[in-house]
Amino acid sequence: MSVDILIKCLSTFGAMSGLNINVGKSCLYTAGIHGQELEDILALTNLPVGTMPFQYLGIPLAAEKLKVSSYDSFTNKISTYIGAWSTSSLSYVGRAEFVRAVLQGVECFWLSIFPIPATVTSKIISLCRRFLWGSKKSLVAWNQICLPKHEGGLGFRDIKSWNAALLSKTLCNIHSKKDCLWIKWINEVHLRGSDIWKYKVRKGDSPLLKRLLEIRDTVRGKLQTKDRLWYLQIDRKCPFCALTDESTQHLFFSCRFCREVWDHIRDWLAIRRSMSTLLSSLKWMKKEARGKSWPSRAKRIALATTVYYIWMERNKCIFEGIKPQVESIGFKPLLAHLFSFARSRVCPE
Ligand SMILES: [Zn+2]
Fold first, then answer.
1. Less Cβ around it within 10 Å: N or C end of the chain?
2. How far is the CA of 299 from the centre of ligand 1 (A)?
3. Residue 241 Cα, ligand 1 centroid: separation in angstroms?
């Protein structure tokens, strides 16, 4: 029935636009459909049967977990790019820029779609490392190279973290029920009305969904504030006010030091609502800071950067003994982020 509707839709589209299905370049891929049902579908579509895995828009599609060999086209593409440039024809700076801009650009496409296995990640790092250093032995460890420039690295992205960050976008899409087929399928077939944040992994879930749930558990409530480090003999007091024990809620929202930071941000961006908990702040963001207007974008960036800088200031205070300053968190860093965001929109790399 659904195949019949699909074929009729495509026929109508073809009749109106002139863009018809090219039978010579099309195949029918099925999973778990056999016998008469398959025969009926083949008769209806008039397409030959294809076998999985196959490539679609350069990406392998399979009905089961992808094998490491399925990622060969990905690693081969990186090798081809590298092979086109002999290391001797580029300076060290040129090679570093090539890895950062070109190779990591190629990686972005795959990393935003699949959880990349550790074997493949190691292979890519090895290719990039060899290209960067030429035939020489690596002079600096790769995890140091992946630090931001102001921390002494070259600003390369760490593939594993980057993969998780890009896939977490899919998590947001499932949460917001984005109008796309795969998201609809996950919501209808797997979640069946339940919330992605409360969903418990099941045996038959796809490897991608399982990985997304792992990322969900990593990003949710896993920040190592002192109340979680119960097994360590440490001072548990908040490093900012030293009045109460440090917890996520206190550190980011209840502490008087952070309230002063939030007051600055709210005044500057004319936000009326006070930021009292992470959950209420996220609800506020979803309701009032949605959309593509600059004030909405600025508010969203403000929430994310303020939480980030509070954490950085907390770490500097604990590990480097630097006295916390409201100014280090408030206006200046936020302005820098907004400026950087605006520049990326005006002159995309
Ligand atoms: Zn405090």
1. N
2. 24
3. 4
